[in-house]
Amino acid sequence: MISLKINGSTHALDADPDMPLLWAIRDLLNMTGTKFGCGIAQCGACTVHLDGQPVRSCQTAISDAAGHEITTIEGVNGKVAQAVQAAWQELDVVQCGYCQSGQIMSAIGLLSQTPKPSDNDIESAMDGNVCRCATYGRIRAAIHDAANRLA
């Protein structure tokens, strides 16, 4: 049994310790907001927070996540999350939406560490979050908008 604390709730899972966190979240716990994209930590669709830091859940074993606070898109809250979500909606960032939970998780991670990010900070933090619809300009604008909301 492996115990995972996800979005404030503890879950005991009878699973292989090497199982990717993504599959535990989606398949065993039925939290489908976190998406499968590539499976090799290159696209960012599976981004969750591990102790407040963005990580790729497709390459994080559940044994490595045990004992840590895991937050998925379903569980984000607080001022930074609210500012990011409001900016995303107001600036109409989403096109197809598939990558957006990972984009939002990375943006929240960035603004939690760097409240007034430069374009370079945004590029660096969002590197590895791929958007097939190429909404990168809107994503950058929404991050700046969220930072302004928090100021």
UniProtKB/TrEMBL annotation:
Residues 1-76 form the 2Fe-2S ferredoxin-type domain. It comes from the Bacteria. The keyword Oxidoreductase applies. GO terms for molecular function: 2 iron, 2 sulfur cluster binding; metal ion binding; oxidoreductase activity. InterPro entries: 2Fe-2S-bd (IPR002888), 2Fe-2S-bd_dom_sf (IPR036884), 2Fe-2S_ferredoxin-like_sf (IPR036010), 2Fe-2S_ferredoxin-type (IPR001041), 2Fe2S_fd_BS (IPR006058), Beta-grasp_dom_sf (IPR012675), Diverse_Oxidoreductases (IPR051452). Keywords: 2Fe-2S, Iron, Iron-sulfur, Metal-binding, Oxidoreductase. This is (2Fe-2S)-binding protein.
